[in-house]
Specification:
The protein has helices spanning 3-29, 41-60, 62-72, 78-98, 108-128, 139-154, 164-184, 188-192, 196-212, 225-234, 236-262. The chain is mainly alpha-helical. The chain has one domain (40-237). The longest helix is centred in the first third of the chain and has 27 residues, at 3-29. The chain is globular, with a radius of gyration of 24 Å.
Length: 268
Amino acid sequence: MSREDWNLKADTLAITTAQDVSIQCELMLDGRSYAFDIPDIRPRRRLVRRFYYLLMLEIALAVPCSEIMFILTISCNQLVLRVATIVVLLIFYTFLYLWPNWRRYPPYNYCVFLLTSLSTAISMSIYLIQFGQTRWLHAYPLIVITELLAVALYTKQDRLKCSHGVGVLIIFLVFGLFLVLAYFLGMFAQMLGLFGCTLEAWYIIYDTHLMLCGHHGYNVKPEEYVFAAVNIHADVPKFLWILIRHLVLGPFVMFLELIRNCRTSGIC
């Protein structure tokens, strides 16, 4: 075989290999695209801003609720109280997720929103008890509100894309500014303990994408911002199940499949 034939074969192999790699990348990245239930960008982003404002109102209720809990001085075991709160909320949110249509229209949508607002305020207050009655007690809800407000203000323009990466960047920029402020005030370590507020804001923007793209089957209309705000809470059980399935059960299932596939293979 001549040198020219070898060069041609090498070029062909390189092209084929590059094509195979690109196909694998497309398969790994899931090239499927999901259309929004609301095709027009302006009413869709207006819907997002409205139910983000409602979520901010819910989170703000945790401030007076936590003060009331400190006045009452709850004496029961905090761990038992948190576990019981999580179990009750998961049962309540699962019910809202499985039967969503009845809470779509008034007056039921307002009643359910009131219940979720109270549950959010109480659960967040129970979480904040561990920090004690200090001046940094209300930093957690304040940071979450600021993060959601920054994302909501970004959606007021329709020229730039509001992607998931942009939302995460805004969330961490806001939290970073609070870290800088805490550093100059000598409370940097306490602020790091509130890192969970970024996860809560991230979940909200993540579930916003799923809800508006029809993953949950809600088919939200532009005027159903109260219904959309409740959906953020109702989707929590499914989100937790996805995490458990992929992070906890996923490696165990892969290990069982590995054993099953290798049981008839020759060793040597």
